[in-house]
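Postdoc handover notes: sequence design on the structure in folder B. Input tokens:
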């Protein structure tokens, strides 16, 4: 994977129609500091989350090497667009708790529907 070190990198599931719709939009409107990587096209890297972990929960690796998951990954990815301030609301204290709860439920159901492995998504 050849991603500049000064980029945030969003790992997405290229087999997920909803994910792909969002990635196509981000491709058009995000600044150049966001790299988008189909995790189905890259091998696991020792010391990083596995492909299974990335399939179960959205992952974004920041330019500083920090891993963000779920809603945090979404908010950070969208911060690379002019719509970022709208997504920042998802990190407000009360809204954030609800957003995290809804995301975890959605991620588990998405994984079960696409890959048929409910136990895997619980990891």
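Designed sequence:
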């Amino acid at each position: 994977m050849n991603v500049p070190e000064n980029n945030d990198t969003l790992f997405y599931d290229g087999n997920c129609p909803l994910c792909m719709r969002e990635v196509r939009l981000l491709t058009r409107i995000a600044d150049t500091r966001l790299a988008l990587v189909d995790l189905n096209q890259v091998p696991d890297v020792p010391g990083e989350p596995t492909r299974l972990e990335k399939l179960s929960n959205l992952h974004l690796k920041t330019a500083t090497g920090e891993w963000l998951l779920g809603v945090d990954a979404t908010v950070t990815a969208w911060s690379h667009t002019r719509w970022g301030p709208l997504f920042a609301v998802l990190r407000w204290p009360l809204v954030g708790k609800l957003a995290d709860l809804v995301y975890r439920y959605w991620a588990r159901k998405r994984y079960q529907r696409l890959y048929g492995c409910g136990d895997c998504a619980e990891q």
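Context for whoever picks this up: Confidence is low (pLDDT under 50) at residues 118-123. Don't rerun without checking with the PI first.
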